[in-house]
Amino acid sequence: MTWYIFHNLRACIKIDYQNLLLVKWETIEHHEVGFRSSPKYQKWKILLYHFYEPIPTVLHYR
What are the structural domain ranges in the chain? Predict the structure, then answer.
């Protein structure tokens, strides 16, 4: 995916099982439309969604 730039995963120091995943995309559309409609997103869901409780909130920042 040429529109993916990098990601960083951080574990919370004070709350077990609390994590922050920061993913940098070229644009919001590359994330919301490009990635989420791709076969790679389907693979992501299959591999990781059973770890999510609850499903994480996705926010976009400048």
Answer: 4-51
Residue 34 neighbours by CB distance under 10 Å: 19
Per the confidence metrics, is the pTM higher than 0.85?
A: no
Q: How far apart are CA 26 and CA 60, in angstroms?
A: 12
Confidence class for position 24, pLDDT limits 50, 70, 90 = very high
DSSP state of 3: T
**Following DSSP, what letter does each residue of 14-53 receive, concatenated?**
SSTT-EEEEEEESSHHIIIIIITTSHHHHHHHHHHGGG-S
Place of tokens 């996705």: 58
